What we know:
The protein is mainly alpha-helical. It has helices at 3-7, 17-24, 27-49, 58-91, 100-125.
Amino acid sequence: MNIKEIFELFGAANLGDFSDSMDISRTYSTTFWVMLIIPLLITVLYYIVLDHILLAKTKKWLLIGVGTCATTAVIDMLIAKMKMGDYIFTSGITNTHIDFGDYLSFGFIVFIYSALLYFVFSLILKSFSSRSRNVPF
């Protein structure tokens, strides 16, 4: 199993030219690491560094989680756009059939994976917190 299959939802979300170009330009590995690091950093920040009683509420945890997922999706979309632009420019491809909808689909997939990672990291790290131990449940 490679990273491309993870982002294509194991064959369910193959985006054609977009997926092939992302694979050739080696963009999947960069976006994968960004998708892992940002939710982990925000979760560590929430549970260990900022362990404050005002943040120990499910609504605030959910708001921080949605913000984390949206930020991760936007950053990964920008990375994909820049690296794909560089690849298309250097290879001299003129007709790519890649539009903004492909980037939005990719961003939505990253958003969902980031939400899963944020939830899993929260379950792991909440035991290290003194005030947010019961958040999300």
